[in-house]
Amino acid sequence: MNLYEYEAKQIFANFGIPVPPSMRITRVEEIKTELNQAIAQSKLSFPLTLKCQVLSGGRGKAGGIKFANDISEADNIAGQLLKLKINDLPTQSLLIEPKLDIDKELYLAVTLDRNQSCAIFIASAEGGIEIESSHNVVTSLIPYPYHSYVARDLAYALDLKGSILVKVADIANRLYQSFVSLDLDLAEINPLIITKSGEVIALDGKIIVNDDALDRQPYFRDWLEKHLDGLTPREQKSKLTGLNLVELEGNIGIICNGAGLVMGTMDMVKDFGGKPANFLDVGGGANRDKTFAALEIVHDNPDVKVILLNILGGITACDEIAHALTEFIKKYPKRQMVVRLQGNNQDLAEKILASSGMKLFSDLEEAVKEAVSLSHQGKL
């Protein structure tokens, strides 16, 4: 789950990472009420930065960050930005902060290195866009249990010295604490700025929460539904159901348990001349209800001519899948289906499906060929 910048900065603040004072508005009218009040109370002062809050990158290039020198200018800019779409995503709100006096920009992030099965720091003495093309990027494996010297070594590798080194190392420690405590996939500060007065502040922030951890993180309870911008209605429904769906442009709906199995099945479909309509992973422990929900979501796509369901029963019990299939077939008797079920409770699944008239495939290649053949029927 991707978070908005203002949400990321609230988390940073909760963990003691310095962020600019700010306020958020959703309506232009708030400029002359809440903003005026914040200025009168010396919580904010001009010049101000107004930033679109969207779940997309590229705000700066798209004109989603602007500066205002007075209330009139802020009011005019806010009206423009609240109507702005960035990468087809509407602006949900504006974050308003002081325009800070920047001396230097850094980049700092904690993320997962899946190849090495550990968290890593990524840092650079340069902040801003296209950081991946910088030649000054430093990466550092994060040991478990964690030791604060890792952050100090990281700051030293950025050629920082004195109090700035200490401040950056402290922020790196706190960023890692947020990463671990909240089950994050990414905690990024870009840029982490050093002001001319020697302050070190997170000027922008990006956080991605691990979807599988949402149920065990009270902080994010009920957040998911408000963070689905950029997804199709079926993809949104899948997320809320606990399914992983990515829609494509083909006509063979693919449902498997496990991301690797989905990818392998998709590759085989393409090798035999078919076009996948989606990637859908029901997960390793899919039950009857979850499988039925997956079938309905794929069925709802009008481009899908045939559904290819490929389940290897391990944690997933094949009889649970079979019960979902019989319920689905009764509801949608005309839907073309190709089913491969193997593994845990396979014999029970075969008995459950025996009366349905559905043919079960034991060989994946045969199942894929059948699905591709059905997908081509009716074509010239």
Give the tally of β-strands: 18
Please bin the fraction of helical residues: 25-40%
- Rounded mean pLDDT is 93
Spans of at least 5 consecutive residues with low confidence: none
Distance between the termini: 43 Å
Note the overall shape.
Answer: elongated
| SSE sequence, one letter per element | HEHEEHEEEEEEHHEEEHEEHEHEHEHEH
* Number of continuous helical runs: 11
> Structural class, from helix and strand content?
alpha+beta
Percent of residues in beta strands: 25-35%
Oligomer: single chain
Biggest sheet: strands, sense, closure? 6 strands, antiparallel
Q: What does this molecule look like?
A:
This protein is an alpha+beta fold. 33% of the residues lie in helices and 26% in strands. The protein contains eleven helices and 18 strands. Strands 7, 8, 9, 10, 11 and 12 form a six-stranded antiparallel sheet that branches. Strands 1-6-2-3 form a four-stranded antiparallel sheet, with helices on one face. A four-stranded parallel sheet has the order 14-16-17-18, sandwiched between helices. Helix 8 (288-299) packs across helix 9 (318-331) and helix 9 runs parallel beside helix 10.
Please sum up the structure shown:
The chain has 380 residues and is of the alpha+beta class. The chain is 33% helix and 26% strand. It has eleven helices and 18 strands.
